[in-house]
## 1
Amino acid sequence: MILKKLSILNYKNILQSEVSFSPKMNCFFGNNGMGKTNLLDAIYYLSFCKSHINTPDSQIINNGQEMCVIQGSYDYEGREEEIFCAMRLKQRKQFKRNKKEYDKLSEHIGLLPLVMVTPADSELIQGGSDERRRFLDVIISQQDKQYLYALIQYNKALFQRNTLLKNQNMDAPLYEVLEMQMNMYGKVVSEKRQLLVDEFTPIFNEYYQTICQSSEQVGLHYVSQLANGELKDMLQANRERDRILGYTSCGIHKDELEMTLENFLIRRVGSQGQNKTYLIALKLAQFVFLAKKGNTTPVLLLDDIFDKLDAARVEQIIKLVSGDTFGQIFITDTNRKYLDEILATMNRDYSLFRVERGEVQPMEE
């Protein structure tokens, strides 16, 4: 899959831009705060119907403007795909594929597979379990509609149960219906998460060892509460306690993905360089997994990833992303040092851009 052209109107600090891209490598230079990350975020938005950092839609529209538009023209395995998104203040956002509006945004997820690597990914290691579960959910949802449906239905039942708890509702039959739904859909989600971790971990380990040129072992371990029994039984047993708490205290929304280095939690033992290598290897493995499982090659977005990495690790990353495994790539950096090294190793098409105060302009080689 190739993003051929991107049009942006009032997306964060990018007031208006229309850019045509190389099918292989696209490099964006500029100082911090100029709009490089916002450009990549707009591409991410076209794939996932939301910002990579979960910025509320009301804050995505440029301050003082009433609407925002993103439009992408894709070459999808030989056929044209036009994706259009419009957001207006205090209105429902609009997503169209080839001029036909989606009934549900979930119908769009998975069409345009994409992997983004950013400094904000540090939250996967240092943040709460929500971030790590979301990492699994994003991967599986892009290639498994059954999983996405089960996850949505589980979250709906969870929301309804939490509403009953907060309102001190005592309707036992209603609780039973919701708890049966959570049990049924929770099983699907838990099983598919475990299958992903089992298949994904060896790929991840290989990429980590390639980048750092060592035999250090990294791991992912999915810890599910469903391992302790039927969720409906746990929910029923905890109903009175949950009513006091005002929320549901057990279920797959409380599961954890443990990230380890040499069998220790990396958030406790990892150095800055190890953490950065861990995250980049994790995302490159995600790319390979999606390419293997899906119908098309994902787009890869690399946002300011070279900071805090030694020269040897940068060299290995350059070799990896410039190889045949990876398709179209978008890279941002504040200077050309590492990007020039990447381009020097390539005999393929590439494009250079300067981003300044929200304006994107092509550069000469």
## 2
Amino acid sequence: MSAQAPKRRLLLASDNQEQSRELERILQSVSEVHTVSMSELPDAPADQISGIVVDINLRSAESVQRVRNKLQHESYRAMPRLFVLADALHHGSMQAWALGATDTISRPFDAAGLLQRIRAAFPDSQGFDATERGRTLNRGVAAAHEVMVKIFQKLPAGEPLKFSDIVQAENKILKAIKHSSLREWLTNVGCHHADTYRHCLFVTGFAVAFAQHLGMREDDQRRLVRAALLHDVGKAFVPTAILDKPGLLDEEEMSEIRKHPRLGYEALVAQGGYPPEMLDVVLHHHELLDGTGYPDGLRSNQISDIVRLTTIVDIYAALIEARPHRVQFTHAKALATMEQMEGKLDVHLLHAFRPVTLGAY
């Protein structure tokens, strides 16, 4: 009887293979590991590679540029990337996220903790094939769509929107984006959903991908996906003639649209059971750091991190969507437009968001 084949196949890229020996031995207990030097890192990885572990000197401009050039290749874009940090210092961590890390680990290694991170970061390549990947994506989109139906059809008709309805969907959504890709999520949503639903699902996809890119803890990822799903709940109380108007809105119609954050907030407060950070996002996702946003004209440190992050993905999603009154922006133009919104957005978060957009096309 033949031995069972390893469940994962990992590519370990190192600029110091002697230093990487310990890591290689730990990885081999749950994976088949192919270790290569940076100069040997292929332009396109072999089939069935579950992910790449990058163990390089993140303070070396040469090593960083070399790995950046390789990972920009199409075949690497959707692949999970775990970066090894020499220590927990800020510089190395920020450099890793800028290179598209989906998770980071630091020396010295704790073998048990590391293996747990590996199992979470890299799917089982035998038990999670392309067919299952497609099913998982479809289940995630369907779960998100079900929440949209409850928001935009059932809530205005008087049927309660329970917090448990959102929690029930979040696992499927997080799993769908983790095990497929942001691009596949956006394509699926873009093909099958009307404008208002599509925008909310685009924002959700970008928010989850951003959270995973930043290496947020799973609990924080859950908080963000809940907030993103619900951020536009107030639009359920805006007349559909305004929401679906094919042309530009006049001043009176725009005034009605601007009521949606408070309408959504009041509906959820009346319902009860929603965490403060979700209510904060629903009410304040159109606030801007310079005080020119609405409904409360908040400024700077009055705006929480989760709101700042949601605002960025909300604006970006709106710009790249096709709208009846304008041509959709390219990803590059959307980012350039947002970078020109001086003083309005969190520039550090916007800079960190840039690599996430590469996964959308």
## 3
Amino acid sequence: MRYLHLLPPLLILIAPPCQAARPMITDDARLTDAGACQVETWAHLHNRQREWWALPACNPGGNLELTLGGALAWTDGRSDSGATVAQLKTLFRPLETNGYGIGLAVGHATQPGSSHTGNPYFYVPASFSFLDDRLVIHTNLGYTRERENRENRLTWGIGNEWQMRSDTWLIAESYGQDKGRPFVQFGLRHWIVPGHVQIDTTYGNQLGHFGTQRWFSVGLRLISPRLF
């Protein structure tokens, strides 16, 4: 959306961040506030690779969020080609307290370090609220076309947000494709200025590859007042 690749390469296909609010990869059935914009930025550290992401998003009309951004990447200190993400997201049913929400996201993403033209994708985010929003569960089911491999893949994700304090959330999730081992991620989200400035951090890994696929991220999310 929280929404992205080369965490290992899978991430950008499953949830271009434009996904759930950072730091989740599994997207939520929410949008940036109507008439407002946000910027999600984060550093992603993965073995010898370093990535710096920025994903601005705006919701000018109230039910259509537009995201356009990308990343710069370095491997062993040498610059790689960057990544780009372009996505549109809308809701069929907004998430309500102790209820559920559902939407649709469509986009195109390239990977850091890749010279390929990138992959189109879509997914359906669904979110479920419990305990007056203190627990929210998110699920994603989608599809991507891997042009480089000429393969079609189903993508999935399931995660939750647990409110520990009024300004702090614990997140945990798992996500993957119809082939290969799933990924897991755990983290914290904390509001410095409620509704406007948020920081987060995560640790993630791939099941069965705990020594080689682990990553760490730290991020900042800025949300504007109403602009439109």
## 4
Amino acid sequence: MAEQCSDTEVTFRLARRRSSVPRARAVLRAVLEGWGVGRDVAETGELILSELVTNALRARAPHDRQVGVRIVRSAEDGLLWLEVSDAGAGRPEVRAPGRDETCGRGLLLVEALAECWGVRDRAGGIGKTVWARLKAPGLAPVPGGEEVAAITVQVGQSVRVWGAWRTVRSVRSEESPAGAPSIVLGLDEGPALWVDATEPVTVRKDAAPG
């Protein structure tokens, strides 16, 4: 699962397998906790994201095409956006399944829980992006920090990861499977963070290298 993080946005990709649904929920839960979102809103967001990811996994697309997830917040407006992209054709539609049908109710749930939702063509590729917006008045303000290239991050600094500050314990250079230079940041909590060497990461302004 590849990810990119900032103070206002988290994006990641999921393999086309059933286990990706609980994984997406777990990531969202961690992000929203760091953003100060209340429990009720977080639970609603998890339900919505579960349905969007489930629908994306069911879309007819090559098995090697991943599902993209984007979580965006606007603290000033108190709004949260959840977006799920897939390479499948067609547009999802709200259905009214029969009493005995066991599926087909996902978008009914999204429509009921979200402030609004919609579909747009996937930017720069085939497929679509399904998005949902919900009110999250408890969003914490964006903390102070500055964006720097990952290659300049040093041990002892604090970086913003999954909506929370983490202290960098180690820094090493690696080569990605595609042959691009990458930086691996070992953190004081959670898994190591892999980023492209030139990818911007948010560093706390008052965090001095140790």
